[in-house]
Amino acid sequence: MTNTERYHKPVLLHESIDGLAIKENGIYVDVTFGGGGHSREILNRLGKNGRLYAFDQDADAANNAIDDERFTLINQNFRYIKRFLKFYGVKKVDGVLGDFGVSSHQFDVPERGFSTRFEGVLDMRMNQSGAISAQNILNEYSENELVNIFFKYGELKNSKAIAKAIISARTEQKIVTGNQLQQILKPFLQKFKENKTLAQIYQAIRIEVNEEMQVLEEFLTQLPDIVEIGGRISLISYHSLEDRLVKRFIRDGQFEGAPEKDFYGNVSVPFRKVGGLIVPTTTEIAENSRARSAKLRIAERQ
């Protein structure tokens, strides 16, 4: 296994890059660089005049930077895609790839606090200089705020009871580690469903820490301005909340309400979907368990 794969084994690698229909001398953006697996494949398909810009807010990702004059790594959150491409003199691009969610590296480093498998301090910041960590949420948010997070981002029906238990526990002792949190959550972990419930609770906290849904919305709404007509977007989601946003945006060009129509009543949306939903093969899932919930959607600027 290469260092890149150790950091994060790219999911739906060939399917997602095929979806970009790469032009040899085009300009592309990988907004979730991570271990650089997708970026390397894009570079493999670009000619000498092609360009690739990659975003990653996690400082650890810089260790995987690619030594290639066609490549630029931008250590920023992809919610600022338009601003930073403008800084580099780029107004339009031929394709954008996004592989959302948490990298294997972030899950596998106990002190990052993303994983339910390791004992570690509850952090969950993708950007380690971010102001709010999981500890802040668990120890400082009101009961109503916790209820909303667990219901909205974890899709947990018993979010009120979970929030109440956390509020009660933190009056006795500050919640600092994963083990502490899991002890508090024990009454809510049904036999044979422990891992699923824990994953939902951790997911809810992580989404709030990193403002993941707001970031995704801000990113998607900038795509019509930066993707050339005929350019492609190739987006991989890992949970239903993300996938719903991506699907709705491609279909309607917005997240709520009916899509815009022209004078003649025709629906006017910036992208048209290319093909159907793509999911990993059973072989890929067997080789990389983190691929199991991945969903790839491809669309073309029109």
From TrEMBL:
InterPro entries: RsmH, SAM-dep_MeTrfase_MraW_recog, SAM-dependent_MTases_sf. S-adenosyl-L-methionine binds at residues 36-38, 56, 78, 99, 106. It catalyses: cytidine(1402) in 16S rRNA + S-adenosyl-L-methionine = N(4)-methylcytidine(1402) in 16S rRNA + S-adenosyl-L-homocysteine + H(+). GO terms for biological process: rRNA base methylation. SUPFAM superfamilies: Putative methyltransferase TM0872, insert domain, S-adenosyl-L-methionine-dependent methyltransferases. It is an enzyme of class 2 (transferase). Its EC number is 2.1.1.199. It is found in: Cytoplasm. The keyword Methyltransferase applies. One of its GO terms (molecular function) is rRNA (cytosine-N4-)-methyltransferase activity. Its main location: cytoplasm. Pfam families: Methyltransf_5. Keywords: Cytoplasm, Methyltransferase, rRNA processing, S-adenosyl-L-methionine, Transferase. One of its GO terms (cellular component) is cytoplasm. Specifically methylates the N4 position of cytidine in position 1402 (C1402) of 16S rRNA. Belongs to the methyltransferase superfamily. RsmH family. This is Ribosomal RNA small subunit methyltransferase H. It comes from Capnocytophaga felis. The lineage of its organism: Bacteria, Pseudomonadati, Bacteroidota, Flavobacteriia, Flavobacteriales. The gene is rsmH.
